[in-house]
């Protein structure tokens, strides 16, 4: 599965507005943001870069005023980590990824006739929706910013990225809060090489523990399978979220390594 995940990462970064390829690496630059979580590189599966390739990679980031940063599945390109370390790159994190297939997907119980009797404050009684208006996309972006505790600010560029995801063959799903805004949501990139990545699953603190994350994750996976994907994968941030994903059919398959070079 590591090669599939890495091949997807390459294909997905090539979709970025200003993608760059150099020395066996693909860098997904997005001029709409300086976020290192969006502007990063990944190696092609089986890449064997040398010191000059890494220097060219670093220069591509530096000339744009960005931190050199990579995310990749090390098993799919085992020669990459040693040469990065020789150039001074260090580990930011190692994340396990989970994979779901059509055979393992378990859809959570959806509301039926009894939902009408449930209190309006119980957002789990609401259906998963697809945003369609600017206001709904903005509400999803704002909710995710709140869910991730200011890791990134809600912005017009973030709203535009969500809309591009939905309109470019991926999917954005959310659950509406009683005030008509977004209680929680997530997005999934358009499939490539038979797989797709769910990212940014987040629920506003006031609405956690009500099944929102599992509902939107399962809905996204089902949407991708209907579009022909053979698998969907994601990374989790803690044991609590891992259990949420495992309940809807995601299982551990490998790890991804995050590395960066400080100034």
TrEMBL record:
SUPFAM superfamilies (alphabetical): Acyl-CoA N-acyltransferases (Nat)
Pfam families recorded: Acetyltransf_1
CDD domains: NAT_SF
Residues forming coiled coils: none
Entry superkingdom: Bacteria
Domain N-acetyltransferase: 135-263
Protein's recorded name: GNAT family N-acetyltransferase
Organism: Sphaerisporangium dianthi
Biological classification of the source: Bacteria, Bacillati, Actinomycetota, Actinomycetes, Streptosporangiales
């Amino acid at each position: 599965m590591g090669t599939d995940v890495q091949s997807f990462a390459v294909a997905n970064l090539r979709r970025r507005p200003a993608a760059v390829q150099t020395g066996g690496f693909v860098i997904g630059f997005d001029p709409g943001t300086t976020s290192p979580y969006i502007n990063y590189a990944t190696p092609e599966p089986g890449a064997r870069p040398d010191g000059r390739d890494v220097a060219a990679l670093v220069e591509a980031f530096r000339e744009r005023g960005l931190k050199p940063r990579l995310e990749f599945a090390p098993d799919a390109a085992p020669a990459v980590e040693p040469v990065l370390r020789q150039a001074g790159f260090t580990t930011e994190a190692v994340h396990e990824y989970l994979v779901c297939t059509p055979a393992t997907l378990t859809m959570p119980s959806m509301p039926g006739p009894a939902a009408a009797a449930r209190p309006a404050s119980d957002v789990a009684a609401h259906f998963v929706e697809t945003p369609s208006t600017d206001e709904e996309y903005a509400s999803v972006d704002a909710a995710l910013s709140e869910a991730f505790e200011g890791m990134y600010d809600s912005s017009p560029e973030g709203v535009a990225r969500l809309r591009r995801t939905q309109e470019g063959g991926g999917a954005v799903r959310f659950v509406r809060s009683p005030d008509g805004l977004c209680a929680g949501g997530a997005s999934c990139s358009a499939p490539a090489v038979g797989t797709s990545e769910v990212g940014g699953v987040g629920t506003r603190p006031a609405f956690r523990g009500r099944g929102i994350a599992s509902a939107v994750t399962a809905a996204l996976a089902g949407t991708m399978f209907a579009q022909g994907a053979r698998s969907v994968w994601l990374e989790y941030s803690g044991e609590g979220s891992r259990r949420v994903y495992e309940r809807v059919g995601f299982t551990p398959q490998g790890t991804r390594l995050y590395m960066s070079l400080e100034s």
